[in-house]
Amino acid sequence: MKNLYFFTKKELFEAWRTSRVMILIIIFLIFGLMNPLLAKLTPEIVKMTIGEALAKTIPEPTSLDSWTQFYKNLTQMGLIVLALMFSGVVSNEISKGTLINLVTKGLRRWTVIAGKMLSLVLQWTMCLFLTFSVTWVYTVYYFPDHKSPHLFQAVLPMWIFGILLLGLVIFSSTIARNNYEGLLLTGGVIILFVLANLYDKAKYYNPISLVTQNMRFLQKGSVLQDYFPAIIISTVLFILFIVLSILVFNRKKL
Length: 254
Fold this sequence. Notes:
Layout: H1 2-17, H2 20-50, H3 52-55, H4 63-86, H5 91-96, H6 100-104, H7 109-142, H8 151-175, H9 179-196, H10 214-219, H11 228-251
């Protein structure tokens, strides 16, 4: 466990030294500022584009519009940014041979995968907390309407799916030879999730539902219970991805 602690610390320090953490902070901070601001300015934008008469037919923005922007930006851009930033987290190190010295000096191979996973989870948690907090503060300021009562029930599935995505990224990067192969594999699995969601009976078991039903969770927190199977399956898949990553990495030639 001591080796795991120091390797995770090394990964976090490297992420900071290479400015990856700073880039993520800036991107997710912008998301947090954009969400309530876009919701607030939408009527003015519509007025400028289609005219004041038609703009009056559009209802006044509420906190729901701000949180709609939040989940839209995270699912359409935020998670993609994570996949792009971390796509070569294992394959790059193997191709450069940077792990040879550590492994030959006694570092267990499972520690590499576990340490990288912990580092990515911490970075994802920080990013989600940052953009969530900023959106929350400005939403309360601009739209004090109490129409979004279940904030944490809605954001928890997003966090869980993000961790599943990182597990998939780690696995893809472990078996791939480069970033592009890893991204293709990750994208392929996500597409399978999306296609499976076309069947209504599958949505309660499909991990992708954790990032497509958030507005329902936000308004009716009890609905989240219906998606517990998707949460359990996401957890099992995450563990499976990490175990497979360790098994594959153990056989990799460094």
